[in-house]
Amino acid sequence: MRRSQTINKKILLICATLVMLILASCAPSVIPEVETPTSPAVLTATRSPSATTVPENTPTPTPIPGLEIDPDGLAGIVVRFAHPWIGETAQQLEDIAREFSQTNPWDIRVEVLPHGGETALVDALQAYLVAGETPGLMAAHPYLLSGFGDEINLVDLRDYFDDPDWGFAAEEKADILPVFMAPFSQDDQIWGLPFTPQATVLFYNRTWGEALGFSEPPTDLDAFRAQTCDAAFANWRDDNPDTDGTGGWMINLDPTVLAGWYDAFDGVIPGDGIPSFNHDIGQETFSYLWDIKFQGCSWFARQPDPYWYFANRYALFVAAKTEQIPIQASWMDVIGSEDEWDVIGFPGVTGESIVVDGPGLLVTTGTPEEQLAAWLFAKHLLEPEVQAALVRNLFTLPVRASAKELLTDVAEGYPQWAQAADLVDSASALPVSDAWGIAQWVLQDAAFRILQAESVDVLGLIEQLDAMIVDLTGGTP
To answer: Would you give the DSSP letter of residue 338?
Structure first.
């Protein structure tokens, strides 16, 4: 195995992450332990704190002859599709694959390989390699694969994407939302097709906000500060001592949430470079988050899940992903809350914005026939009807604009999902590069230290943050 450098990086990163988790377990909180109802089952792809590089995982350098293949040559090809879902989502993908296998005109067959998260998928790849059964198609973040060096290579899909016979027609290309495609496109290459993107948003208790005197959700930083602080002060003044120290924003240090705040300050995380936060925007972002924490307007919760806190007015705002919308709705029903709540973007310097992130459909190198067959199934997974079916199961955002028209039932049943979908025009996509795969967890640790401090040297901690990112990614300052 030629992965010594990557393993060293992973070891360092995992150690740093463990330190952060140990510290997090000691985080103070004024919230008592509470007995909370069991959340409805949700099937999500977990993130791994280990990460590797897209640049090392380069596509085959030779021309792709697959586009010249006689369609008859595809008959009997078996595409092994590995993905990070289990349960209902796995069954849905099995059904989609079965229908494709039975109806496609080329007689391609698809074998589906479910796994309990992206980490489990990557762990299983070693066994697949030993058995000589590397999946031809995977749903994963590219940075998770390059620890395998040249044992697994991704195919540049540009020629497939543009081919007049096998690719997308002009109107189909225009139907794929650019924000989802951007992370997988670089230097005229396409590393994968976007698949099941999630948006990171804020849940906002509109009824409580109105009771506090606010007629609208906040759309800028001053308004967000005003509402979080008023909610926190209201919980100090009420007759329930358990709510003391709560009320504003329940702090969430998921890297996508931190990226959402950074984006709200017009920060840009590069898709093909090393993230850096030691500049005015980075300092303004973390100074703002520290300041509202120092004022008592945001707080650390003892329970990691936000649902009970939000439903019981312990938090006016919580950060979450679109997949959490049906869970929160269920919690509101469980406790009998009549509060109306919304999904909003992160209030920022130029209005509200969101970040989106999700795995890609990655084709691995094989014979020309195998690569083309994998491409054709990946393309099928982006059909509007298939995308709409996946949204109903995973509460993702549809990659194809036309799929939204098929989701009126979801929009009516969950208006918060419709609000998230309407924010796509103000969305920024998170990178799928190795540098971000590593930097996101260092960013999380730095944010934890900043927000835990009674008084903080934001500049000094951000300097350390950038230095560690450079060190772990092997980049240059």
So the answer is: -
**Residue 53 counted as domain residue:** no
Hey, what are 445's tokens?
A: 């640790």
SS3 88: helix
**At a CB cut-off of 8 Å and minimum separation 6, what does 179 contact?**
356, 424, 427, 428, 429
Are residues 146 and 56 in contact, defined by beta-carbon separation less than 8 angstroms?
yes
Host domain of residue 437: 4-46+199-356+432-473
Taking residues 99-122, what's their average pLDDT? 97
Write down how long the chain is.
477
Are 363 and 152 in contact, with CB atoms under 8 Å apart? no
Which tens digits make up the pLDDT trace of 428-444? 999 999 999 999 999 99
Cβ(166)–Cβ(372) under 8 Å?
yes
Helical (H) or strand (E) element with 304: none
Q: Are residues 183 and 291 in the same domain?
A: no
Residue 91 CB: number of other CB atoms within 10 A? Answer: 14
User: Does 379 map to a domain?
Assistant: yes
Among 53, 49, 51, smallest CA distance to 17 is for 49
- What is d(CA 118, CA 301) in angstroms, rounded to the nearest whole number? 27
146 and 246 in a single domain? The answer is no
Please report which confidence band the pLDDT of residue 146 belongs to, taking 50, 70 and 90 as the band edges. confident
Q: Same domain for 206 and 309?
A: yes
Judge if 263 and 394 occupy the same domain: no
Let me know: does 208 contact 313? Beta carbons within 8 Å: yes
438: three-class secondary structure by DSSP: helix
CA 217/CA 168 separation, integer angstroms: 40
**Cβ atoms 83, 112 nearer than 8 A:** yes
- 306 and 386 assigned to the same domain: no
pTM beyond 0.85: yes
CB of 453 closer than 8 Å to CB of 300? no
Q: List the one residue out of 468, 448, 227, 225 whose CA is nearest residue 342.
A: 227
Distances (CA, A) of 322 to 131, 165, 327, 358: 37, 35, 10, 12
Sign (positive or negative) of CA dihedral 347, 359, 107, 390: negative
Cα angle: 146, vertex 465, 15; to 5 degrees: 55
The first and second tokens of residue 423, run together, are: 């924010």
> Distance of CA 233 to CAs 236, 247, 438, Å?
5, 7, 38
* CATH number of the domain bearing residue 242: 3.40.190.10
| 57 within domain boundaries | no
C-alpha angle 261-421-230 in degrees, rounded to nearest 5:
45
Whole-number average pLDDT of the chain? 88
DSSP-derived letter for residue 143 is G
